[in-house]
TrEMBL record:
Keyword Transcription regulation: yes
SUPFAM superfamilies found in the cross-reference section: GAF domain-like, Winged helix' DNA-binding domain
Gene3D superfamilies according to UniProt: 3.30.450.40, Heat-inducible transcription repressor hrca homolog, domain 3 (3.30.390.60), Winged helix-like DNA-binding domain superfamily/Winged helix DNA-binding domain (1.10.10.10)
Family assignment from sequence similarity: Belongs to the HrcA family.
An individual GO BP term: negative regulation of DNA-templated transcription
Pfam family, one: HrcA
Name the record gives this protein: Heat-inducible transcription repressor HrcA
Domain of life: Bacteria
Keywords: Repressor, Stress response, Transcription, Transcription regulation
Domain Heat-inducible transcription repressor HrcA C-terminal: 101-323
GO MF terms held by the record: DNA binding
Organism annotation: Oribacterium asaccharolyticum ACB7
Function recorded in the entry: Negative regulator of class I heat shock genes (grpE-dnaK-dnaJ and groELS operons). Prevents heat-shock induction of these operons.
């Protein structure tokens, strides 16, 4: 099929999907972007009809897509999305590698500059916006559910379903998901959005399963948050932290990824008055095992709404001025890290 026929067929299908009305040459001339006469468009439509891609329901009516036309359109969409996703995955892995390297370097520098223990959480995306959603059939009874955020961050999950879905049904579900959820942040997705999806879907049970999977993908799991640490032994240079009981508690906390992730998460949730840096002294610490320490946390922000937390752990007599200056400078530099 040549490019001109492809544009005309795509225009017919898109317009028919939107209006449900047969599409005539005047509409094609208006929306296709082709600078063609009505006669030329009608000739092309006749060729497409002979090829079996469109139908004329009545002699005086415009054209509507045939099953063959729908199939061609859906296959073109899926091929394009697969190409786009392949490009995205390739560039995404490059960005992840660069970001991990930057965070590892960052935490080492903090520990070296301050002579305390430093930790950094990998970026999270609760406040990031959904770029698009896509389901595709892996095999009978099994879907691959793909969720892409701004910044081209991707999450996937397989979903087991009880019904056989035709490609037209999958296309319909994809259009509905993106129409309702596309462009929204996680916080904006309320029960009203969920009810809308269930009410508008012809495949309510499958949609319910997809929404359960979506909730799971959106839920922030502390075990999924990468934690980078450096200088764990630095704090044992201070006599007040060398008590055997206190030392064992600190060692356990610093070796536990879950404890550290929970510590940074709780510190972030306690952020007051939009202050990026918080200081916890002694029993103010979110973690009981660090009641004999001081903790300074700073929230860093990357582009596209992603963010994480930096933490510095030391004795209560730490050099607060130096630590605050170091973190203030670093969170400003973090905001300049390009993710694209």
């Amino acid at each position: 099929m040549d490019q001109r026929k492809l544009i005309i067929l795509t225009t017919i299908i898109k317009n028919y999907l939107e209006t449900g009305e047969p599409v005539g040459s005047r509409t094609i001339s208006k929306y296709s972007g082709l600078n063609l006469s009505s006669a030329t468009i009608r000739n092309e439509m006749s060729d497409l009809e002979e090829m079996g891609y469109i139908l004329q329901p009545h002699t005086s009516a415009g054209r509507v897509p045939s099953d063959k036309g729908y199939r061609f359109y859906v296959d073109q969409l899926m091929e394009k999305q697969e190409r786009d996703l392949s490009d995205v995955r390739s560039s995404m892995f490059d960005r992840i590698e660069k970001l991990e390297s930057a965070l590892q370097s960052l935490v080492r520098n903090i520990a070296s500059d301050t002579h305390y223990t430093a930790l950094v959480s990998g970026p999270r995306m609760e406040k990031n916006r959904i770029k698009f959603l896509q389901i595709s059939l892996v095999e009978k009874g099994k879907l691959l559910f793909l969720l892409m955020f701004e910044g081209n961050i991707i999450k996937t999950m397989t979903v087991d379903i009880d019904e056989d879905l035709e490609q037209n049904a999958i296309l319909s579900i994809n259009l509905l998901l993106n129409d309702v959820l596309g462009g929204h942040s996680v916080e904006e997705i309320t029960e009203e959005y969920i009810r809308t999806l269930l009410d508008r879907s012809r495949h309510r049970k499958t949609m319910g399963l997809l929404l359960q999977s979506l909730e799971s993908m959106l839920r922030t799991d502390e075990q999924d948050v990468e934690i980078y640490t450096s200088g764990a032994t630095n704090i044992f240079k201070y006599p007040e932290l060398m008590d055997s009981e206190n030392a064992s508690k600190l060692i356990f906390a610093l070796e536990s990824k879950e404890e550290l992730a929970g510590l940074l998460q709780e510190a972030e949730e306690k952020e007051e008055d939009n202050k990026s840096i918080q200081v916890y002294i002694g029993k103010e610490s979110p973690l009981q095992d660090m009641a004999d320490c001081a903790l300074v946390t700073a929230k860093y922000r990357l582009e596209n709404g992603m963010h994480g937390t930096i933490g510095v752990i030391g004795p209560k007599r730490m050099d607060y001025e130096k630590v605050l200056d170091t973190l203030s400078r670093l969170i400003q530099e973090m905001g300049e890290i390009p993710l694209q």
